[in-house]
Amino acid sequence: MSRARVAVLVSGRGSNMAALIDAARDPAYPAEIVAVLSNRPDAGALGIAARAGIATAVVDHKAYPDRASFDAELDRVVRGFAPDVVCLAGFMRILTDGFIEGWGAKLINIHPALLPSFKGLDTHARALEAGVRLHGCTVHVVTPEMDSGPVIAQAAVPVLDGDDEAALAARVLTAEHRLYPHALALWATGALRLDDGRVVGADAARAPEALIWP
User: Fold this and answer.
1) Residue 73: is it exposed, middle or buried by C-beta count within 10 angstroms (0-12/13-18/19+)?
2) Angle of helix 165-189 relative to helix 123-130, nearest 10 degrees?
3) Is 67 annotated as a binding residue?
4) pLDDT at 88
5) Coil, strand or helix: which one is 63?
6) Alpha-helical runs (H) found in the chain
7) CA–CA distance from 32 to each of 56, 85, 176 (Å)?
8) A single Gene Ontology molecular function, please (predicted)?
9) Does 94 carry a binding-site annotation?
10) Considering 111, 135, 140, 177, which one is annotated as catalytic?
11) Is 135 part of a structural domain of the chain?
């Protein structure tokens, strides 16, 4: 089986990256992580990737005068690994439209909310403030408008009485670690694909009953 080549972009500790690496250890998984790249030389994710025997690279955004020049170098380095998919996993840089459009549907991201709700930062605090009873995470295609690309897959978790931001964030993060490898596998195999701006291909026969909470 030919496995899709995946590059992962990170800025911090890399827990979602680690979940992807763990999934790809299974030879039957349809993707392999060929490179991990960061804009921060001190990102903890780089050490995790290196210990897993995965190539790493740093393109330090502080070394470039503007976003366009940084993105141009990042694009050059990423393309050197010839990935079929590029996964953003806690990559804390706003990418230029040119970078995003150059990768198209090959560029995907995970966001800690059920999009289109709670785009941007502080998603868990905002969910608690809004009083929602279900929260979660979304894997989506990256588009120039932040957190607005076509949804590939989502996972929902209950918001419990007494939750604070940290407790809710931990529950969502556990869901992220399950969702991202699942979504990447579907995307890498073409089981889900982009068609006229929407993600299609889900098997309705496999759809579970609704999650109701409380």
Assistant:
1) middle
2) 110
3) yes
4) 98
5) helix
6) 15-24, 44-51, 67-79, 97-103, 123-130, 165-189
7) 14, 10, 19
8) phosphoribosylglycinamide formyltransferase activity
9) yes
10) 111
11) no
Tell me whether residue 79 is annotated as binding: no
Handedness of CA 165, 43, 50, 76 (dihedral sign): positive
Residue 37 lies in domain: 4-111+141-151+177-193
- CATH number at 183 reads 3.40.50.170
**Residue 65 falls inside a structural domain:** yes
Burial class (CB in 10 A: 0-12, 13-18, 19+), 155: buried
Domain-located, residue 98: yes
Answer yes or no: is 95 a known binding residue.
yes
> Does 39 count as an annotated binding residue?
no
Rounded Cα gap, residues 109 and 209, in angstroms: 26
Structural domain includes residue 33: yes
* pLDDT string in tens for the chain (214-residue length): 699 999 999 999 999 999 999 999 999 999 999 999 999 999 999 999 999 999 999 999 999 999 999 999 999 999 999 999 999 999 999 999 999 999 999 999 999 999 999 999 999 999 999 999 999 999 999 999 999 999 999 999 999 999 999 999 999 999 999 999 999 999 999 999 999 999 999 888 888 888 899 9
pLDDT at 204: 84
The reply to whether 109 sits in an annotated binding site is yes
- Helix 44-51 to helix 15-24 angle (10° resolution) is 10
- The yes-or-no answer on residue 111 being catalytic is yes
Q: What's the total number of domains in the chain? A: 1
